[in-house]
Amino acid sequence: MKALAFRAIAKSYGATQALHPLDLEVRPGEFLTLLGPSGSGKSTLLNIAAGHMAPDAGSVMVDGVDVTRLPPRRRNIGMVFQNFALFPHMTVFDNVAYGLRARKVSTTEITRRVSEMLELVQLGGYSARRISQLSGGQQQRVALARSLIIEPDVLLLDEPMGALDRQLRKRLQLEIRRLHQRIGRTMIYVTHDQEEALVMSDRVAVFRDGRLEQIGTSRELYDKPRNTFVAAFLGESNLLAGTVTAIEPGRASVRHAGIPMEIWAPADDGLVVGQAASVLVRPETLSLVAPGDGLPGEIVEVVYLGEMQSMRVRLRDRSSMTVREVGNMHKDLKLGDQVGLRWDADKARVLPQSAGTFATGSDPAGLPETEAA
User: Fold this and answer.
1) In this structure, what are the phi and psi dihedrals at residue 202, rounded to the nearest 5 degrees?
2) What is 172-233 written as a DSSP string?
3) Is residue 9 part of a domain?
4) How remote is the C-alpha of 8 from its chain's centroid?
5) Quick check: 334 and 297 in contact, CB under 8 A?
6) Which helix (H) or strand (E) holds 155?
7) Which of the four pLDDT bands, split at 50, 70 and 90, describes residue 316?
8) Prediction pTM value
9) Computed from CA positions of residues 63, 68, 74, 79, in that sequence, does the dihedral angle turn out positive or negative?
10) Are residues 207 and 239 in the same domain?
11) Does the structure show a pLDDT above 50 at 372?
12) What is the distance between the alpha carbons of residues 70 and 81, in angstroms, rounded to a whole number?
């Protein structure tokens, strides 16, 4: 298990800054996910780590050794691509054995190690099959086996499940997670799928426009996002936009545009009075109460989700908030019903406003909606 570190790494493509100078530490044996929208710099950073791309500035360190100028074959870093990059004319055995043969490993040793690796990825008995005879999930396991068999110090995975259907992705997420726990390799996984990131990772690094916005465990990022972009990108969010009106130790007050009330919630240091900010309220922390109690609103959408129910409530300023309830306690609610909204102030959070934080869109009447994602 070895650590990987990026020191002041930067990369541009012409006038486009793909990566602004950043520092990032990947711990030995850690499963770190790089999460962000397309074009945020995730794959660029991964290719720099692998040696397929040279940075404009900065260095890549493996256990304190600078490998920035080393070619890929001398870094002992494995990589699994989205398209798997398997050799279609070879059998499963030959695909997995390819790296060992390139390293002049003996035939006896190759046979032993390939057999063990195929058992590890649950492909024992598939060694003689052609790649064209395998399903997408099986091909992904071959790609993993081929990368792991050379015993890399670090394994990089660049959206390896992007072309698979949802059910297969969900199953393989858990299989890769279990595989990581068994072998203990340092792994860096790139995705734009927040569910993959939350399910699989020891820590998640959120990227945006070539910058590292925040890094932490899934729970840290979900419960204590640094700004509205991170909050909106990880999980569904209600973001009540407004202006900071007062600050006390550990919390702040925001006046939401159009709603004549002060909203107090926990906050990090650094906010100032008059600053644009949003109050983050997760849908599962909202409660529906009787009309006249809490923040008044009207039910404008009800979605049945099996074990839970999602409802959208339009507020008086024509913005809306999403409520998610387990157990369908309010299964008799219908469109147009008047309700009140309450939430535990300690579970909300005041966040600095990020430029360009995305929203889910407008309500059915085409009216502006409270930021949500």
Assistant:
1) -75, -45
2) HHHHHHHHHHHH--EEEEEES-HHHHHHH-SEEEEEETTEEEEEE-HHHHHHS-SSHHHHHH
3) yes
4) 22
5) no
6) strand 154-158
7) confident
8) 0.85
9) positive
10) no
11) no
12) 20
On whether the CB atoms of residues 146 and 95 are closer than 8 A, the answer is: yes
Backbone φ and ψ of 344, nearest 5°: -75, 120
Domain residue limits at 28: 4-223
Reference 300, options 251, 349, 334, 329; nearest CA is: 334
Pull the structure tokens for residue 138.
Answer: 């099986």
Summarised one tens digit per residue, pLDDT across range 218-270 is: 999 999 999 999 998 888 889 998 999 999 999 999 998 767 678 999 999 99
Q: Give burial (CB, 10 Å; 0-12/13-18/19+) of 243.
A: middle
Give the residue, 2 or 360, on which the prediction is more confident.
2
> What's the angle, vertex CA 142, arms to CA 139 and CA 146, rounded to 5?
145
In the block, residue with structure tokens 């080393």 = 70
Average pLDDT over residues 97-103: 93
Q: 36 and 68 share a domain?
A: yes
Residue 116 C-beta-side C-alpha neighbours within 13 Å: 11
Q: What does the block give as tokens for 149? A: 């068999």
Supply the CATH number for residue 75's domain.
3.40.50.300
